[in-house]
Queue: 2 jobs
Job 1
Amino acid sequence: MTINQSGWKPTTPEAGETEGTTFTGNRALMLEEPLLFEIGSLDQTGVDFADVPGQTSRLAGLERRKDIGLPGLSEPEAVRHYTRLSRQNYAIDLGLFPLGSCTMKHNPRLNEKVARMPGFADIHPLQPVDTVQGAFELIHKLGEWLVKLTGMHSVAMSPKAGAHGELCGLLAIRSALEARGDKREVILVPESAHGTNPATAAFCGYRVEDIPATAGGRVDLEALKARLGPDVAGVMITNPNTCGLFEPDMIAISEAVHAAGGFVYCDGANFNAIVGRVRPGDLGIDAMHINLHKTFSTPHGGGGPGSGPVVFSEALTPFAPLPFVEKTGEGAYRLVEEENAEDHHASSFGRMVAFHGQMGMFTRALSYILSHGADGLRQVAEDAVLNANYILRSLDDVLDAPFGFSGPCMHEALFSDKGFAEGISTLDLAKALIDEGFHPMTMYFPLVVHGAMLIEPTETESRATLDQFIAALRSVANRAKAGDQSLKAAPIHAPRRRLDETLAARKPMLAYKEPVQAEAAE
Amino acid sequence: MRYLPLSDADRRQMLGVIGANSIDDLFVNVPAAARLTGNIADLPDHASELSVERQLGAMARKNMAAGDVPFFIGAGAYRHHVPASVDHIIQRGEFLTSYTPYQPEIAQGTLQVLFEFQTQVARLLGCDVANASMYDGSTACWEAIVMARRVTRRGKAILSGGLHPHYVSVAETMAKFTGDVLDTRLPELVAEPDTDSLIGLIDDETSCVVVQYPDILGRIGDLTALAEACHAKKALLIAVVTEPVALGAITSPGEMGADIVVGEGQSIGVGLQFGGPYVGLFACSEKLVRQMPGRLTGETVDAEGKRGFVLTLSTREQHIRREKATSNICTSSVLCALAWTAHMTLLGEKGLRQLAAINHAAACNAADRLSAIAGVELVTPTFFNEFTLKLPKEARPVVRALADQSILGGVSLGRLYPGVDALENGLIVAVTETATKEDVETFAAALQEVLA
């Protein structure tokens, strides 16, 4: 076969090539699409503007003289270009997307509709506060729900995503410790934690130490107690944890950390498993971020935007960031920021983002919360946990479930690659699932399980879909155990075969270069 | 409940497969003291789509939407017309409801869009490479300061007085904890930006100088001399662009020697949205790329030699490097990056330049009209689509009074710099293609009346 470097150019099939090769490289509905830079031109545009009358320039003599190099497309070309690209993506709208720890649930379209109401989408963050009272009301109302659902004392709405929320929580912890003249240097993090946890702690200037785990995949309470001391600022614990298990000792962990003068941060990425059934505040947690783009259904959009409000205990509330919305005695809402924080919120650690946070995500999350209500949210957790256990128990005869012996899982089922034939890996199994029409599970995470496969079905999948997925996974698992070498070639039906990630990292090509330029550079 | 497909019969049968008697059996690991037995008190039950739409619609109607009134607010977020097809494209379910592209074989749509985004951003900002987006401009600015510390192994950053005060505030918050030293200053109501006055402050401890272009008051200054001065002391120049449409009319910071250029991408494709979600732009020279924060998309080939795209250089990132990562960022702002790229593709070079020219012309006309009012002075002789006026009295109550007449007439410096007497008469006015001549006239007439 001719190596078709550019991916889209017509490639004449050569004699003896396999059936199914086409002149264009297209395969019926699977259409190849060139880069914008290969089809657009600097003279083409998809927007009509009136001519500008002659005008004295006040641009300080810095008028642009050279071309920027931004090709344009007409509207029909642009719509087709991006529509064709969209079809090369898997998405929750197309099928089960069981990425563990990511909570890929259905994204209701009502959320999109309300977020586009001009009263929310077309308002400026610096408008006079009495022209945006409805926006503050919405932020405040969502905050109230989050506080009640978590049983915590207060909420900071401004963090932009989960990792930004972690940063918010740790800055509050450090501020609280410094306020009492206590300079502690260590944050304890379980090995199974999300990579953002140690990265955030390091970003805040902390030294990160591991918390050992028990054979049952939980925090080792006795080992933790032994490590606690005057140098430990706090712990970052994910609960339910990244093995999909609830930490049964959570209250004892919190008590031990508090007794040693530290604080408990909870990574709330997995709140979906317990919303409406367990309140983190009842577990002794001091700070927890909530991924509105996980538990509360705001769309992931291919990698954001997220939104990571942080709920706080009473002890940490005085240190929460600015700005925040407050309801006044007269039923109006006011914004507490630098200028009026002093009399009122003097201990705040300050501002961590330019404006008020992810308003567009708040609207969507509140729409989802009001749709479900208190009863529906409880059902969300129950169905999410039920679906995960159904997968766990429907597959634990064919796949190794390292913690299956220790009882039910929460919202996600964890398997390992134990029992796979020599040379067959979790990656191979995942790529074979792609050919079966499913997005793979999270692979190789958590790090504590060899060849980990973490499956989070969420509550928005029907039993029929789960049964199809279970049958498909059973089939590829059996092939993996039997040593079926054809798995190494998967996927064969996706828009691309396996991609060379080593090449991408060794010779980074991070921006398009016109062919002439590219040749000259070589 | 409409979002939950399981029936009660499903639930019973599935519990049977699991071998559990009831759903409570699955929550057995929760300590008894923390198990809730019923719904959380004091919260309403589920609601229909119609009911939710009514409740949220009532809140939305309490806000003064920018499109309904003469609107002149900027200061870090700008109102531009976004073509209808942009919103159509980002609502394609395959984009909207996909995840971070961890399985590239079935995420080429998002990955190719990000490669196009990175290329467009790099070219617009005048740099070699750009990442796949940050949360917003303010957090991108702080990440750039931290990156300069890593590159130079120095800990002092000099911040221009023309940098958006919220960006300064974010950096100050973070620096309290990281130990970075920030040398900050307030803006002055003078004609020139402080670009050249920063040159004398650069010393052997300086990691970077951070300037905004155009600056918070709207002023534009050549960055060439400052870039040279930074490089002479082995420091980096970081330029912050909060209105990228400006770069359709003026030379980019990268072309003038800035090493890292970050920006708020909101003004292209994203809309006002009360401050978020926005899209942080982050670009730098090729030699610094391994110190960059955030996700990067790179070109490669698949097993058949076909071109494809993957997330790359992940060894900088938290999920691989954990506590040694260049940043803790994970989720960024990919859907907003798609909106940005779709809008930029519709504009193209030609459309962007026309849009920039229209903005500048509209702003020049408005500046002339408003500064013709008795007692009103145009502080900034150079600007793109945003300028600063000095009013004969404190600007904040004036903005308030204008809002009572349903005119959103700019941002007072008193709002941005509370308590700074020297700035309290300042008013920042942004004029984009969305403001009509009639809007300007209404604004001018009302301002004249309020000042009288």
Job 2
Amino acid sequence: MTELPILTLVTFSPLIGALLIAFIPRHNVQLVRWAALATALVSFALSLALLPAFDARQAGFQYVEQLDWIPAFGIQYKLGIDGISLVLVVLTTTLSWISILASFGPIKDRVKEFMISFLILEVGMIGVFTALDLFLFYIFFEVVLVPMYLIIGIWGGANRIYATIKFVLYTLAGSLLMLVAILATAFAFQAGHGGDWAGAFDYEQLRQFGFDITLQLFAFGAFFLAFAIKVPMFPFHTWLPDAHVEAPTAGSVILAGVLLKLGGYGFIRFAVGMFPDAAQSYAPWIIGLSLIAIIYGAIVALVQPDMKKLIAYSSVSHMGFVTLGIFIFQQQGMEGAILQMVNHGIITGALFLCVGVLYERTHDRTIAKMGGLAARTPVYAAIFGFFMLASIGLPGLAGFVGEFLVFVGTFAVSPVAAFSATIVMTVGAAYLMWMYQRLIFGEVSDFLKGLGHHLTDMTPTELVTLTPLVALTVIFGLFPGLVLELIHVPVDGILLQFRDATAGVAP
Amino acid sequence: MTTDQLLVTLLLALPIGGFALTALVGRRLYQRAWIIAVGAIVATWLIAMYLVYNTLFLNAYGAQGLHFTLYEWIPAGDFRIEANFAVDNLTAALLIVVCTVGMLVHVYSIGYMAHDPGRWRFFAYLNLFMFSMLLLVLADNFLLLFAAWELVGLSSYLLIGFWYGRRSAALAAKKAFLVNRVGDVGFALGIMAIWTTVGTLNFPEVFERIPLLAESGVIQPWQMTGLALLLFLGAVGKSAQFPLHVWLPDAMEGPTPVSALIHAATMVNAGVYMVARANPLFVQSPSAMWLIAGVGIFTAILAASIAFTQRDIKRVLAYSTLSQLGYMFAALGVGAFTAAIFHLMTHGFFKGLLFLGSGSVIHGVHDEQDMNRMGGLWRKMPITHITMLIGAIAIAGIPPLAGFFSKDEILGQAWKNGFVWVWAIGIVVALMTAFYMFRLMGKTFYGPSNVDPAVEPRVHESPRSMTVPLLLLAIPSAVLGVALGFPIGAGLIEQWMEPVFEGANEVLGRGQAEPFQVLGLDGFLAGASVAVAVLGVLAAMRLFGFRVPLLGLQAKPRPAVVERLTDRLRPLYTGSFHKWFFDDLNDLIFVRAGGLVARGLWWFDVHIIDGAVNGVAGLTQRSGRGLRHIQTGRVQNYALGIALSLIVVAVGYFVAGGR
């Protein structure tokens, strides 16, 4: 390989930083923090460096790197990206440096371990989006669990052990089934090629293979469980509120911003890409579950007393749009789903940062105790309000376009489904506005009065973490083409392949 | 980009720029926080008037108007949405109202908000609203219109909740946004349906293809009706028609200039504008048109009946606004599109005037809004009194002031187009309107003073920045009817709107309007309108007092008679006073029942769904513990297990293999 292996650099740059940080003395907390931030910024810059040479009109994967890893079983070290992975990689690197910066204040114990965990987490997340070998993908998918387990379990809230064990066991249960399915497809591939293992884990080759329907139905089911738990889809979502409530702010940001997208990405790339017939057969059920998630999540969010739980349930609702958009198998729907993943990452990540800002001052997240913040912390009120409106889907801000594209795509296929989904436009606005009104409007609550001068407005650091997200929310709201142009060709490819594969199957 | 395109772009850029600047630095301008915002709007007004002149008087852009694309907003495969704008005659008519009332409200607010520490925020929001409203009338496709639709909703939310410390304001702001969202669901679905059936969202193309698609049967009549009703649901929300009317009266929690601008003169007209804009679509469905007329006229009478008994001066005006908007929808429903736009324009001016006047009154009596604590103000607030009187006569429908011409046009068209029931209800509403407006005038200006004695000596006329806008609004309230609507049926407004509604009139089978016949049906209908208006005014004058300073005419109020009437009509009075209990009903259904459902689902989530998850985990743990007992380490136990298993396998083998 003569070219610079830039994808490897993007993926493993945080690991290099983590290794370097390991050599910094633990008492030198400031240096650890800045080194971690510098590392994350380097990965961010590297991921941006992918953009200029990326050809959005070219089908297939770019920046591909391919090396044999375990040749006996055809397992490779193969990386590559298309537009879909690219936008998610950049989302990951963006939210990572912001989360690390946002942890400067809140994380005071074991800073070194936290930063190392966080950087390893970043490796896992980027790896999931760049891996083109199923075995490699599986490893990255599982690598993510370990640092997240530690982040919630060590730096989390009072009930952190329960939450983190639940999170890990639940997701592990799903992904282990996926491993079985990966092995099963590899065996089928090898059997179909006269016992030759070459390419048995290669995504691009598996995609062309055309598995028989029985295997597809089983394998899709296993992949579905893994990703449905990750997204999380109703009824596999109950780990999410617990995990969010206990996780530290940065953990919540990454959990909502990137980890949930691993599921959505997995659906598009692997579950649909490799098993189109099974996807077709399961689609009505998945659409049904998505609709339930959209409405159910929003309704349950209405009565949450805890800010983080409320946003967690809103994520269930918003991610319902992602799965709905994917499984409606229609161009606008799928492009909307991907855009929604990016926008949800930015907006919900920002909402968790906002909750973190308040928690830092009050050490509480109970909505009923707050009130009248507009008078005491006007800048905070404005920024929180901005993201509240973005999350509601106000046109001109990022949330709107993705949501509307999913609506339009759904309507074109099934007006009834679109009717049910649009109900959330009211309920979704209701729970966020209710929370915002209780927090920001009205008179300053006694609880907040009791804090006295501890209740300060946003610090410069907090502003630095949130301002880029404000800018992105406006930019992607006004120019969604920046993302859509990148994902257009791959979405076309997936839908085309899907149509070819299912042409013979009666709907 | 041509100069005119640049000017249209500036029309949007100036207010949004003013918003951004005021939001960033307005706070540091202290008393002068208004300077950027007002400057931006004055410039906007000048540009708008230039464009209006070009469009309406020079016909500079042809019959189709000026269309252009700024950039491609959403490129998603076949779904390509541009940020494109249009200025045609309909837009120009709206621009006159939006920019003029908008500018005067900005000027008025300089004085009205002078003592509010948050004034910089206020002016920033006002500019944001102007941007959104201009986007709404300039948008040339449905999705951009929808975006503007939501953005005016946002500005309205921010301005209603402007005094955020008040719980009632915060609740009203939220209610306005959420009730509007119910309508927006319909609007959004309508847009999706248009894209799915027509394949584009650009106005010119949609309106060109819809009649063809309807004719060829690609869009079935029921689909067309469904489409129209979905869009109409959006209009019902934004223009506060029954049953989504509940948000508008509460919106009066916002500062009064906001009530004048957003909740009377401009934003609430958006629904009327949208239906008028999409007229080629609506005329394809007679049933939808019928329903629009029905909802409109029902709202008109419902709201008028509530306005009868309200004590808060702004609430009376709010219900009056609902009622007048109802008239406009009735006009749209009966196919009198021009009359609807005409009434939209005149109402924009005289209702803006009345609201600003009420703001002046509230300001003068030191933030009192209860009319039972006003009275006798005509002497102390002469300019406010005279200008409000002009507004009241205009809305009551007494010629030659503006309201008469547009209202008479609506009622006359209803009759002539075969909607006699709409006319009949409408004429009753006209009577009620005249009555409650002069009830308001009597209680506020003429009757004995009930002003708090502590405040009484300090009651004063408002500063010039407030009275000048009142005077400027009084002019169109007085003459706009004659200027645009005379001769009746062939005025300027008819000429302007002719190209816009040409196609619709053709579909509805309307020919050229015949000249007004004084001694025919026209004369009878106009006479009836005037008669009921005069009757209403006289009745109110008799009960609540009146005074014409120059002529020396005056009448004392008769509280005893009012009391007796109220007693006799107690059930009606109670119903009207409590707004026919719609708020209580909504509270019961949505807040209480909805809350119960949500709580029930949460319980389900925690105990059933998560219970199952934890149950599985618990079961695994327990079975692990249970199985641990088997693993005893004693060879005898294992041997027993092996033997038992062998027996089971053997029995199974013989049973299964025995056949």
